Every structure is written in C-alpha cells, then in structure tokens.
C-alpha cells in the first residue's frame, strides 16, 4: 500500500477501475465475479485490481482457491476529501469550522 495521492488519482483515472470500486461498495466480491462484469480478459481485470490494491483502495484475502476483494472506502474518502479541502474554498471553510468545534465522543464525521 502506498501513501501518495498520485497513486490514488492514477488508480481512479481508468473507468474500469472506477467501476470496480463502485461494484465493491456493496461488499466483498471474488475476482471471478468482478471479471465476469466486464468484456475485458481475466488478466486485464487482474492488472486493474493490482493497481487498486497498490493504491490502497482495495484489499484482498484468500478463501480456499478464491481471491476476495473489498473496498477500502475510508482511504478513498479521506484521500479525495484531503485533496478537495486544499483546492475547494467551501471545503477549506468546513475544515476550519471542524477544527474549532469540540470533538463529540462517538460521533461519526460526515466528511467526504
């Protein structure tokens, strides 16, 4: 896994990878299930999954002879949110407001 925004945005640059992330939002999927949703070859989808994994946007686990992939949604949200907060004036204002607001124990943030 990497920590660079460049890797994340490079991973998001391809429509197939964005579709894979959308497909994974509902939960874990086997590599074969993911590949079956596309006209591309299995090795091509495997390469896309590798790019997403290297960017830290998906995780994989083995279950017998299957590889199961899951979305790392919080990494995606934090990375995109951090980027937006540096370039979008509204996000900059919201970030400053959040800094001044006392943290509420157990509250869930609604950040992008």
TrEMBL record:
PANTHER family: TRANSCRIPTIONAL REGULATOR, ARSR FAMILY (PTHR33154), TRANSCRIPTIONAL REPRESSOR SDPR (PTHR33154:SF33). The lineage of its organism: Bacteria, Bacillati, Actinomycetota, Actinomycetes, Micrococcales. It comes from the Bacteria. InterPro entries: ArsR-like_HTH, HTH_ArsR_DNA-bd_dom, HTH_MetalResp_TranReg, WH-like_DNA-bd_sf, WH_DNA-bd_sf. One of its GO terms (molecular function) is DNA-binding transcription factor activity. This is Transcriptional regulator. The keyword rRNA processing does not apply. Keywords: DNA-binding, Transcription, Transcription regulation. The keyword Transcription applies. Residues 1-91 form the HTH arsR-type domain.
